[in-house]
Amino acid sequence: MKTQDAIEYYGGKKIDLAKALGISPSAVTMWGDKVPLLRQYQLERLTKGRLKADPVAA
After folding, report:
1. Which residue, 26, 20, 28, is CA-closest to 2?
2. pTM over 0.85
3. Which InterPro entries does the protein's record reference (predicted)?
């Protein structure tokens, strides 16, 4: 899962993505291009599958 895709899902703002995960926006910034695998699974669950975890690309 690309970080940008997750950000766009939450309205294009890192702060909204960070709030959904209960983390700071600076933590999101540290991810780089790909969402860490455990966060991918968390996002998949929070979005009811609209965002999909990609363990191979993580």
Report:
1. 28
2. yes
3. Lambda_DNA-bd_dom_sf (IPR010982)
Residues of the chain with pLDDT under 70: 57-58
Coil, strand or helix at 40: helix
Contact indicator for 57, 25 with CB cutoff of 8 Å: no
Integer CA distances (angstroms), 17 to 11, 21, 26, 56, 57, in order: 8, 7, 11, 23, 20
Q: At what angle do helices 14-21 and 37-46 cross, to 10 degrees?
A: 90
Enumerate residues 6+ apart whose C-beta is below 8 A from 5.
Answer: 51
